C-alpha cells in the first residue's frame, strides 16, 4: 500500500518525541524550513503532555504509541511506517533540537555511498565535550565499532542517522528496543547483516530542553551498560541478510 | 506426628487451590501443571517421610532436610527464570502490537478524513450530518475500491 503523496524516492524524517511539547514546535519549524523536500513523522512515544497535538499543529504526521516504548520502540514503529509507505530513505532527528536540521541534507547525501549514515560530531566540528567514564565508554564503543564496521566511526551513539531502503527493511523488523540498543546494537545489526555503515561530520548543538547528566556515578553506570550492550550485540545471533541487501546507492531524489 | 500432618495439609491446600484457579480460568494450564506436580510431590513426601531419608542416603546428603531445601531452591530459581523469559516474550509481543496499533490509528484517521471530506461536484446533503460525531455515523456499506479482487 502506498499513499499517493509519497513516492518511492521520498525521504522521511522520523522524530521520536516523549514529552517534548516545549522544544518540538521550534525543531519542526526548522526542519520544514531547512531540510528540503521531506515528509516528517513525529512518533509520540506515549507522552503525557500535548506533544501529539503540537506536532500535528506544526504540520507533521503523528504516530501515537499507546504507551511509552523507548526510543528503540518508537524508531521501529517509524521504520515500519516508512517501509509500508515505500519511502526511499529515513532519517532519525531528535526532537530536542540537538541535531541541526540544516545538516539533514548532508546526512541523507551520505546514502549515496552507504546503507546507514551516521551524522557524527567530530572533535573539530561543534562544541560538545564529554569527560571521565562517559568519554572512556564512547572511545571504547567507537574503537570497537570502527573495527567491526571497517570504517572510521567516532560517534556510534549519535542518534542522527539515515537509512536507505535496505536498512529500513532491516530495521522495520529488527530494531533493538533495549537501552543503548537503539544506537550501538542497531549499528552492529546493520554491519553484520552486510549493510555498509559510514559517518559524515556534522555539528551538534546543545539541547534546547533538558540537560545531559554529568554525574560521575551515572557516567560509570553508563560505561558498564555500554560495555554490556556492546558485548551482547557482538555475541547475539543475527537475522539473515535481507534478500536484496546491500543496496549501496541512495535512491534518486533524496538529495533535496 | 503433627509436622507430618502440617506438611500434608499444606500440600493439599496448594493442590486444591491451584486446581480451583484453573477451574475458574485464572491460571493457564501450562503454569498450573508445574505447581500441581510440586504439590503432589509434597503430599507424597509428607505421607511417607521415609522416602526423603532414603533418597538423601542414596545421593549422599547427610541431613535429609538439606536435600529438600536444595531441591526447593533449584525449583524456585528455575520457575523465576522461566517467568522472566515469559515476561520478556510477552513484552516484545506487546511492543509489536503497540507499533501496529499506532500505525493503524494513523491510517484510520486518514481514511476517516478522506471519507468525511465533502467531494467537489457532488452535493449530497444526506451524507453530510455535521451534528453527528464521526464515529456515531452508521456506516453499513464501506467504500469499495477493490471490487475487482475476489
Describe this structure in words.
- The complex is a heterodimer of chains A (256) and B (150).
- With 256 residues, chain A is of the alpha/beta class.
- Chain A has one domain: Alpha-Beta Complex (Spore Coat Polysaccharide Biosynthesis Protein SpsA, Chain A).
- Chain A has a 7-stranded mixed beta sheet with strand order 3-2-1-4-6-5-7, sandwiched between helices.
- In chain A, helix 2 links the parallel strand 2 and strand 3.
- Chain A starts with 10 loop residues before the first strand and ends in a 21-residue tail after the last helix.
- The N terminus and C terminus of chain A are likely disordered.
- In chain B, helix 1 runs antiparallel to helix 2, helix 2 crosses helix 3 and helix 3 crosses helix 4.
- Chain B has 150 residues and is mostly helical.
- Chain B contains 4 helices and no strands.
- Chain B starts with a helix and ends in a 34-residue tail after the last helix.
- Chain B is elongated, with a radius of gyration of 31 Å.
- Chains A and B meet through strand 3 and helix 3 of A and helix 4 of B.
Share of β-strand residues of chain A: 15-25%
Spatial separation of the terminal alpha carbons of chain B:
75 Å
Number of strands of chain A: 7
Strand order of the largest sheet of chain A: 3-2-1-4-6-5-7
Which stretches of chain B of 5+ consecutive residues score pLDDT under 50? 124-150
- CATH class of chain A reads Alpha Beta
Report the CATH architecture of chain A.
Alpha-Beta Complex
Oligomer: heterodimer
The biggest sheet of chain A amounts to:
7 strands, mixed
Number of strands of chain B: 0
Computed CA radius of gyration of chain B, to the nearest angstrom: 31 Å
**The biggest beta sheet of chain B, please?**
none
- The low-confidence runs of chain A, each spanning 5 or more residues with pLDDT under 50, are 1-8, 245-256
Structural class estimated from helices and strands of chain B: mainly alpha
- CATH superfamily of chain A, by name, is Spore Coat Polysaccharide Biosynthesis Protein SpsA, Chain A
CATH fold title of chain A: Spore Coat Polysaccharide Biosynthesis Protein SpsA, Chain A
**Form type of chain A:** globular
The total domain count of chain A is 1
Largest interface: A-B, 17 and 10 residues
Cα(first) to Cα(last) distance of chain A is 25 Å
Number of helices of chain A: 8
Amino acid at each position: 500500500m502506498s499513499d499517493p503523496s509519497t513516492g518511492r524516492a521520498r525521504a522521511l524524517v522520523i522524530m521520536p518525541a516523549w514529552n517534548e511539547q516545549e522544544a518540538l514546535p521550534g525543531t519542526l519549524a526548522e526542519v520544514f524550513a531547512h531540510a528540503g523536500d521531506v515528509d516528517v513523522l513525529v512518533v509520540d512515544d506515549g507522552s503525557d503532555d500535548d506533544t501529539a497535538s503540537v506536532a500535528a499543529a506544526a504540520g507533521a504526521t503523528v504516530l501515537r504509541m499507546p504507551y511509552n516504548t523507548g526510543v528503540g520502540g518508537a524508531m521501529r514503529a517509524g521504520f515500519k511506517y516508512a517501509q509500508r509507505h515505500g519511502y526511499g530513505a529515513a532519517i532519525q532527528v531528535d526532537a530536542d533540537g540537538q541535531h541541526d536540521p540544516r545538516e539533514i541534507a548532508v546526512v541523507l547525501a551520505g546514502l549515496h555511498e552507504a546503507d546507514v549514515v551516521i551524522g557524527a560530531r567530530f572533535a573539530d566540528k561543534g562544541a560538545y565535550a564529554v569527560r571521565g567514564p562517559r568519554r572512556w565508554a564512547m572511545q571504547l564503543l567507537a574503537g570497537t565499532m570502527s573495527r567491526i564496521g571497517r570504517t572510521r566511526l567516532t560517534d556510534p551513539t549519535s542518534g542522527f542517522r539515515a537509512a536507505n531502503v535496505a536498512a529500513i527493511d532491516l530495521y522495520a523488523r529488527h530494531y533493538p528496543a533495549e537501552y543503548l540498543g537503539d544506537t550501538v546494537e542497531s549499528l552492529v545489526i546493520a554491519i553484520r547483516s552486510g549493510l555498509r555503515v559510514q559517518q559524515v561530520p556534522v555539528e551538534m548543538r546543545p539541547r534546547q530542553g533538558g540537560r545531559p547528566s554529568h554525574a560521575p556515578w551515572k557516567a560509570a553506570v553508563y560505561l558498564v551498560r555500554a560495555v554490556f550492550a556492546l558485548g551482547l550485540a557482538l555475541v547475539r545471533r543475527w537475522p539473515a541478510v535481507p534478500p536484496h541487501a546491500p543496496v549501496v546507492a541512495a535512491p534518486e531524489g533524496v538529495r533535496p | 506426628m503433627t509436622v507430618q500432618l502440617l506438611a500434608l495439609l499444606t500440600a493439599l491446600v496448594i493442590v486444591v487451590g491451584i486446581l480451583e484457579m484453573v477451574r475458574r480460568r485464572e491460571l493457564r494450564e501450562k503454569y498450573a501443571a508445574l505447581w500441581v506436580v510440586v504439590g503432589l510431590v509434597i503430599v507424597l513426601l509428607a505421607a511417607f517421610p521415609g522416602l526423603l531419608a532414603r533418597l538423601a542416603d542414596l545421593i549422599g546428603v547427610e541431613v535429609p532436610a538439606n536435600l529438600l531445601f536444595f531441591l526447593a531452591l533449584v525449583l524456585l530459581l528455575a520457575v523465576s527464570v522461566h517467568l522472566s523469559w515469559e515476561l520478556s516474550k510477552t513484552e516484545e509481543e506487546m511492543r509489536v502490537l503497540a507499533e501496529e496499533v499506532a500505525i493503524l490509528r494513523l491510517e484510520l484517521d486518514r481514511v476517516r478524513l478522506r471519507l468525511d471530506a465533502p467531494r467537489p461536484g457532488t452535493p449530497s446533503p444526506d451524507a453530510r450530518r455535521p451534528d453527528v460525531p464521526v464515529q456515531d455515523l452508521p456506516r453499513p456499506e464501506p467504500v469499495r475500491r477493490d471490487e475487482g479482487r475476489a
